[in-house]
Input
Amino acid sequence: MFDNTMNIMLRYLNEFLDTITEAQAALLQSYVVDHFEDGLLKKREFYREAKSGKYKVTNYFSDSSENKALIIEQFTGISARGSCVIYFNMRASGEYSLWDWEQYSMEGILRLRGKTVLDANYKEFLIIDTELDSDTIKSAYKHYYGDVHAGEIKDLLLEFGYDKVGNLISICDVKGIYGYETKSIDLERFLLDTEFSQIMFPWDQHPYYHNLYPLLPESEII
Output
């Protein structure tokens, strides 16, 4: 999978996706290793500990020249306790990229599929789960970050939920900093709270979250 002529770099993260050192990762039961090729993320390995033992989930970013069956064979296996998520069919707009993805079990069986949008720092701005045999949406969310922390999980402030046709149905105050103690509210209640919807998170300045579509942001300001 790897060409020795490529410039390959590793980055170690903790479970919150904060950057740590290799030595710090060695002391943890759960950590992440990012593999970059020529500056682009090629795979992200999640090392985890469960009651049944250690296991690894590999997120692999493929291109059109790669064979999906070979990727599945390489990164799944019961004896190796490995499963994988394959990202493919990338489309880009500015610093954002839209990917299709498929999740495979340790047995190499397709379990989940969907779409995601990542920014240049690989933060997840969109996550869609679809039916296995179609593009029918099961669940869809968009994320808003505070851009304070390096780690994606610590930085997540709001999660927007949408129905199957793309209408906004819920807004979750993930950290409770907007006064809703991590609870979800609907759009009507959000708009009635003028401090929240006009000052803390000015709704008219964030069109990306008004509807599920477009999936890819159409401007740098979302």
